[in-house]
């Protein structure tokens, strides 16, 4: 097993999301590896973050590979789920419509695992977490 392709996957996901016109129209430049430090009340209405990742071996006798399960989350301080769900749909379209190109290794498969939409207490913030699975192979 190798974790060598994790950074290449993250960079490709980030580049795809920040370069997607439909997603940019919804969230502007609010796409981050981690939520930025913000003063209370200064948060953008929608914010996308790259989240946790779990990796397991997918090597064979002839190749070195890994399965990367990772999260992308839409955070919203808006009422209702309409805008965060639209942003989540744009994330899906951006990542799944055209295969990602990695700086090293290659993508064998990328698919959606599941999506969870949840609301904070009362009229609190909304959150839509998208889970993806990427199968990667290392080039030699």
UniProtKB/TrEMBL annotation:
Pfam families: Tail_completion_gp17 (PF11367)
InterPro entries: Gp17-like, Viral_Tail_Comp_sf
Domain of life: Bacteria
The protein's name: DUF3168 domain-containing protein
Organism listed in the record: Halovulum dunhuangense
Species lineage: Bacteria, Pseudomonadati, Pseudomonadota, Alphaproteobacteria, Rhodobacterales
